[in-house]
Amino acid sequence: MPEAAGHEGAASNSLNQDDISKLFGDTGQNEKEGGSQNREAEPSQDLDHGPVTPVKYPADAEGLGGEDHMGQGESFSGVDGSENIEDDEVEIQETEELLAQLEILEDEPVDDNSHNDAEENVPDRDDVSTRTDSHENPSSEKGDTTADKKEKGNSETVNGPEVGDQDAEEPEGVTEEDEIDDDRDHEGSVEEHGVDAESDKASITEAGDPEGQEAADHKKDRTSAENPLQEQKDNELSEPNSDQEPLSTKGEREEDENLEADTENHDKKAEEEEDRDVPEVVNEGRQNEDDIPLKEDDEHVEDEHRPKRGKRSLMLLIGLLSCVIVMAGMAGWVLYRKRYVPESTKKKVLAPVQQRNVSVGEMETGLPQPRPSHVARGPATLVARLESRLQEAADLRDELLIKAGEIDQLKGHFSESIAKTEKEILQEKKAREINSYLQAMNNKKVELGLRTIQRREAYIRQLDQPSEWLEGGSQELLYVRRKTMIEMEASKIAGDIDLERLIADLGGVIQKNRHGMNSLTVDMGKAKLHCLETIWTRLTEADNGKGNGETNTKKRVPNGPPFITGNRDNEIWQELCGGNYARKGELTELSVPAAKCLSRIEVSDLFLNGLIRLSPEAAKHLMKWKGDWLCLNGLKQVLPETGKSLFQWPGKVISLNGLSRFPPELAPLLLKWQGTQLELMGLEPLDDIGQLAGIKALAQWEESGGKLYVPGNIRKQIEDIMGRSG
Amino acid sequence: MKQVMGSTRRVYLWALCCLFTILSSDLALAVHPTIFTLQQKMEQIASLRASIAEKAEQGRSIRQQFKEQMEAIAQEIKDEQEWMETKSYEEAIQCPRIDYDLRLLQRYDGYLSEIDRRLNYYQTLDVQLAYLFQRAEDDMKIIETLNDMDIAALMIRIDRVLNEYLPEAEKPLIRAKHLRLPQHEDVWNEIVKRY
């Protein structure tokens, strides 16, 4: 914007430049020198300050900067074009006065070194500016003054009449300042680089360019070398301009009237003159076509430059505005696409909002996604490690249970061996008629037998320790495993659960138990052996009719299992605990661990018809089995304690066809049973009171809804009882 | 010159007119900024609600799972107690299985309490968010109809609630370190009381 006004001013200022050339024959030379000198100092200046040297001019003191160019230009162009010759004369007179001052200043000696040396000028930039402002620096003054002269004249000549209607002084100052700035920049760009002089900023940048500096130096050298010739050329160029001064004034006055009609003619003229002047420009090598009109007829200059610059400005403006419009359109489109949410889309977005259980992933918002589970949150390897540890713990627990079973088996083996030995001792006692402990000790076979019993009983006692340790280890592993599984499950929703720590804890327990299992031992050094006499006394007492040997042996074993099973049963039991239930029907006795293992079997019918005895402890565990039909047809008798567990079993059918009599102690337990069918096909019709009480309880149970299978004679008894009661 | 300046002015005017036309059409095409802001807030609320609902559902699922496992453990303790024929706590904890099972019940109890506490909190939060969402929806309908409404207070309130509760979307439902485990003996007494 400022450049348009500036160039118009520059174009119209050529008249006063001619005046100046007329008055000072060497003005062109000095102007060039001054301009070059001035521009030599420019590269060292800040780009922001270089071109805004209007501050250095008196007009700038009035607060009119480069930014006001447009405003000033507009104000001038907006002024009515009525001419005022008197004002012109006054202004010309003022110009002449100023030029006279400049003449005086030009006569002062010029210190070229102070301006040629760029390095010197860098620190002295402010000084130069100051001197330029105050016209104290001769060299700067020369350049500036030359420009000053030229532009003052131009502005006064061209704009003076237009401003005449306004304030007589202020517009002048404004015009001088603006156009001095513009023309100076224009000249700088033209002379140094020969680039388009329309852009002040471009000229500023170029003035600051080192290449421009070099060009200026080069020009200066050339100017110095060709000084005489240059002066002559300048004079030649100046003279015709001065001759055309009246024409210029006249053309200026007629300009507004004939502008439209003459525009084309002027263009042609300008082109012709341009063509004519081209050789000179080429010879100079530094001036472009923009310089030429400054030295030609004002009318031609105006006619030549106004349409061209106007066109260029218009083209530039149009291009600029087109870009802005296109960019605004694009921005608007982007905004539209971004902001506008169609109604259908809006519904899609908001529909899930009204549903409670909506997938967050479907919402295209910046909200963080919730962590679905520990699997997604933690590394997969961590979870895999934890699961591997859990499996390891389960495996180790199975190993511990098997080892405990082996220990129980060993205990059973020792118990059986003790029983055999006892039998052998008793046979020897009978055969040798040994009646006292001393006699027994004199018999080596009896003595060694007693010592064997003593040692084996000690073994059994000592084996209790690893057995208990294994039981504890298995419980601990079960607990840690369960706890870890709880934590794993909770980690899906809970923070602060360190899976690594869980792995470590589990690993610690596993390691401890594995180490303990591998280092199981029996320390016989600490074993307390029973006295041989006590063992002998116990044997003889058992032999004297206080019970059979097997039973007594079991009772004598301290801390031993209440029911010691045989080798075959132990084998079957191990198979059961290993998951092999094929030989479960061959079991004759059921130990507690075997009952535990058997209770895990997942079948609807469990046939244990080989069992001849069932301890209350084993019955407790066996009754945890969840099935429908339990066959215990091998049992010859059912103890009341066993019956307590048996009739708490949640199944439907119990077969006890091995029983010959139903003990009356089971009657109240049977009445509480929730099962549906009881088979007692082995009952015998006995007339004792106990049997009758049992049959009466069976009848009551059947009456309460149970289904009873009994032999015919028992059925008859039941019917008799029911008939009597009915 | 006057004519040139006049033509320059015309160009300026023409460019400005084009600019204003485009910008005004853009603005006309774009959604009302207040509605747009409200929609954004509503989406944030909805997303937060969905996130919280998902967490709560997960918590409820785990709670149910823990509850069933607790029942099984309690039944195991009861069986052991009958087998050992123990009545007192001191006797019962001599059995490793009972002791360990009671410890497990402690953890289950702690988790259930914490889950229940957080589920209650989420329920309250959901109600609050539902209220804000509904209010924003109502205001949006009014703005769509009347083109203007002062929603500053609502926006402040929504922002405050969102700023307060948005971190909840990132947090886990419960914190293990916040668990409050009941006493070992209290768990035993509870089982004895139940059976």
Keywords:
heterodimer, A: 726 residues, mainly alpha, 30 helices, disordered N terminus, B: 195 residues, rod-shaped
Would you spell out the secondary-structure blueprint of this structure?
The complex is a heterodimer of chains A (726) and B (195).
Chain A: H1 2-12, H2 14-23, H3 27-41, H4 69-78, H5 85-107, H6 113-116, H7 118-121, H8 125-134, H9 138-163, H10 170-193, H11 200-207, H12 210-225, H13 227-243, H14 245-284, H15 298-339, H16 343-350, H17 374-377, H18 380-432, H19 437-442, H20 444-490, E1 494-495, H21 499-518, H22 532-543, H23 549-556, H24 567-577, H25 592-598, E2 605-607, H26 616-622, E3 629-631, H27 640-646, E4 653-655, H28 667-672, E5 677-679, H29 689-703, E6 707-709, H30 712-725
Parallel strand pairs in A: 2-3, 3-4, 4-5, 5-6
Helix pairs in contact in A: 1-4, 1-9, 1-10, 1-15, 2-9, 2-13, 3-9, 3-10, 3-12, 4-10, 5-9, 8-9, 9-10, 10-11, 14-15, 18-20, 18-21, 18-23, 18-24, 20-21, 24-25, 25-26, 26-27, 29-30
Chain B: H1 2-29, H2 33-84, H3 89-92, H4 96-146, H5 152-170, E1 174-175, H6 184-194
Helix pairs in contact in B: 2-4, 2-5, 4-5, 4-6
Walk me through the structure.
Chain A is mainly alpha-helical and 726 residues long. Chain A is 67% helix and 2% strand. Chain A contains 30 helices and six strands. A five-stranded parallel β-sheet of chain A has the order 2-3-4-5-6, with helices on one face. In chain A, helix 1 (2-12) packs antiparallel against helix 15, helix 3 crosses helix 10 and helix 26 (616-622) runs parallel beside helix 27. Chain B is mostly helical. Helix content of chain B is 85%, strand content 1%. Chain B is built from six helices and one strand, in the order H-H-H-H-H-E-H. Chain B is rod-shaped, with a radius of gyration of 32 Å. Chain B starts with a helix and ends with a helix. The mean pLDDT of chain B is 84.
Helix content of chain B: over 70%
Would you tell me the structural class of the helices and strands of chain B? mainly alpha
Order of strands across the main sheet of chain A: 2-3-4-5-6
Structural class of chain A: mainly alpha
Number of helices of chain A: 30
What kind of sheet is the major sheet of chain B? Answer: none
Strand content of chain A: under 5%
Tell me the total number of β-strands of chain B: 1
Shape of chain B: rod-shaped
Average pLDDT taken over every residue of chain A: 63
- Indicate the multimeric state: heterodimer
Secondary structure: helix percent of chain A? 55-70%
Measured between the Cα atoms of the first and last residue of chain B, the distance is: 111 Å
pLDDT averaged residue by residue of chain B: 84
Characterize the overall form of chain A: elongated
How far apart, in Å, are the first and last alpha carbons of chain A? 128 Å
Tally of helical segments of chain B: 6
